[in-house]
Amino acid sequence: MSRSALQYNQDCYDQTTNAMGKTKRRREEEEDSIIDDGSVDDDASSANDADDVKSVEEEDEINDIEDKPIEKKKKVRKLKVSATEDFNAKLQKRGIVYISRVPPRMTPSKVKTLLSDFGTVTRVYLVEEDKTKRKKRRKAGGSGGKRYTEGWVEFESKKRAKEAGEALNMSRITNHKGSPHYDDFWNIKFLKGFKWSHLTEKVAYERRVREQKLRVEMMEVRRENASYIAQVEAGKKLDHIEERQRRRQDKQGGGNKDAGQEAKRRKIKQKKPFEGDKKAGVSLFI
Length: 286
Hints:
Largest sheet: 4 strands, antiparallel
Helix content: 55-70%
Radius of gyration: 53 Å
Strand order of the largest sheet: 2-3-1-4
Structural class: alpha+beta
């Protein structure tokens, strides 16, 4: 290696050591100043930490408020007296027809479609058949579909309802031979003075009666079950008593067992029958 290269390396080393020495002295001076003014620095740092904590808490609260969905209050619309009066007037103008027999495969939507030719149909109610009948029909190999027994149809106008009842009664449901209702006839009648509220009251009353019957049946079953359980418990007690007596008698021996049974037998004093005077030869029996 040449002389100039060695001199260059030595100069670089000296510069590096001088810089490191200056940095070390600066750090020592800073540490001394921190030790002298430690109380003031601690108070300032604690105050700064408290401010930082408060700012973080405020930011969290703001974020929580922003994250919460804004619940919109539902507006309650108040009905006007005039609107209710108009609705009641419309209800008074409506008419109802009664269907005494609903053919198979007939649904409320079909009834509404067929009767809509005479006027606007507002409501349709069909009574479903009993579930037991449906199960019996299915077991017998018949159709398992839902069927209805009777129904009520409400028209917007009494006049239209009366016309439908008079025109459709005892007439074919449809004239299409391919339809399943070709051989079925309407059994329909206009109900004068009948309102839909009467029907709802009837349905509610029947439901209450059905629930009451079911409640009474359940109470009867519970009573029978309780009496049966009581009898079973009493039988178990008697069996336990007899078993305990049998074990006691087995310990005492077989002879004592017969004696105990004889002691339990009821003794009744009987009078000797009158046979007459044997010496005199007199007797009651001839």
